Amino acid sequence: MRKHFVVTVALLFLIPFVGAFHPQHNTAGDYDQEAVRKRLDGMIAASADGVLMLSFSRCPFCMKAKSILRSKGAAFKVVELDTDVDGKGIRAEMANTIGRTSVPAIWIGGKFIGGCNDGPSDFNGLVKLDETGKLNAMLGAVSAI
């Protein structure tokens, strides 16, 4: 009897959380999808002539990426998703655009280069671009340095 009670209580506790694991669950809450999508597309388009980083203000990988760019004297635009009014929506729309929601998400010259330590195989993220010497060339090509 006690075992049945424990299982029942455990199930009652877990039921509200089951929806969170459903692939269609939207953790961003309600947002104007069209307006947020347009804003994200606009930011990415503007990065064709510069550098865009979608970030969280206290994320260690974001801080490292910003530090690398600052050490090069690079001009870059940062959108802190944890404080931006559209942050949760932008993050949700990132999944549709680049197939991921992790930060930092960095574009240079309109190309998604990934995050700090990871990204598409052409770039593999900011650290790898810096280690291979390609970062300076990319930043120079968009007059960021």
Question: Which characteristics define this entry?
Answer:
Thioredoxin-like_sf, signal, Glutaredoxin domain-containing protein, Glutaredoxin, 12% strand, four-stranded mixed beta sheet, 145 residues, glutathione disulfide oxidoreductase activity, alpha+beta
Sequence-ordered SSE layout with sheet pairings:
Layout (H helix, E strand, L loop, with lengths): L1 H17 L14 H14 L4 E5 L4 H12 L5 E4 L6 H12 L6 E4 L2 E4 L10 H7 L2 H8 L4
Parallel strand pairs: 1-2
Antiparallel strand pairs: 1-3, 3-4
Summarize the structure.
The chain is an alpha+beta fold.
Describe the protein:
With 145 residues, this protein is an alpha+beta fold. It has a domain of 96 residues: Glutaredoxin (3-Layer(aba) Sandwich), CATH 3.40.30.10. The chain has 6 helices and 4 strands. A 4-stranded mixed beta sheet has the order 2-1-3-4, with helices on one face. A hairpin with a 2-residue loop joins strand 3 and strand 4. The radius of gyration is 19 Å and the shape is globular. The termini are far apart. Keywords: Signal.
